[in-house]
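ok so for the tutorial part 2 we go from a plain amino acid sequence to predicted C-alpha cells. step 1 is just haveing the sequence, like this:
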Amino acid sequence: MALDKPYADIPGTIIFDADQARKGYNLNQFSMSLMKAGNRDRFKADERAYLDEWPMTKEQKQAVLDRDYNEMMALGGNIYFLAKIFSTDGLSFQFAAATMTGMTQEEYAQMMLDGGRSIEGNRFVGESGNG
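step 2 — the prediction. this is what the C-alpha cells look like for a chain of 131 residues:
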C-alpha cells in the first residue's frame, strides 16, 4: 500500500524516500562501488561494460553514461551516492550541482554566496492559495 506523500508536489524537488531507495538500489550500489580504485579504473576503461555488470534499468545506465544527474535522481539515485560518479570524473560537488540547475559553476557559486536560490517558484501546490 502506497503511503500518502504530501511532499510529492514540491516543484523541482525529488525526495529520496523508501520508494526511491527501492527504485534506485542498484544504481546506488553501482555508485558506491566507485569508492574502490580498481572499480573506478574498470569503469573509466569501459563504462558500458562495467555498467552492464549491474542489474540497473537501461534508463539508469543511459543516465549514467549521459551524466544526467537530475535523471539519475528521478530514477532513484541518491545524490550522496551519485557523488561517487562525479568524483570519479574529477569533478566537484559544486560543479555537479551547477549542472543540475542549468548554471555554470561560477553562476552557481555566486548564487550561493548571495544567499542561495530564491524561494519563489519553490513552493508546494496548495501553498499561498495556488491549489
